[in-house]
Specification:
Structural class: alpha+beta
Order of helices and strands: HHHHEEHHEEEE
Mean pLDDT: 87
Largest sheet: 4 strands, antiparallel
Shape: elongated
Number of domains: 2
Strand content: 5-15%
Low-confidence stretches: none
Radius of gyration: 21 Å
Amino acid sequence: MQFGVTWPQAVTVVVAAAGMYLAFLVLIRIAGQRTLAAMSSVDFAAAVAFGAVVGRVVLGSTPTLAAGVLGLLTLFALRAGFGRLRRRPRVDALVDTLPMLLMADGRVLPDRLRSAHLGENELRAHLRQAGIRRYDDVACAILERTGSLSVLRRGETISAGLLADVRGREAVSPRSIDMASDA
């Protein structure tokens, strides 16, 4: 096992790590925010395969300890840098997706499910986990930026500010929303 890395190898590791990180962000953006949330066994197997591909590309044909540490440092630096950049609304809109309404007033919104790459069976599982017994009990179900699902029940007034960044919020019945509340 080699421990060192030459300068050209170091540059290759940094460029490969940065390229794979950016490619991963783009692919996640295309595939949708559900891609990395609540994984099934098939999703977990795919994530392991993704990690193997990224590791192989970043470290090259002869991995060394120094190349591995340099690759990790590069990925952590990119993560920290993008975290800071995401504080800017324009960058955040490019990198991340807004929360999306999937159900409104007990109605499933099939077009939104399709665009979120979510099946109705997955939606039902989340509703059951939230203690929902009937579709009519749901004021709205929202796919969050993280890929998790939030379920807000009917019969409780929802602050308008809470839905401010949700795509499709206009489908929620005005009687469910407290317009006087600002947050």
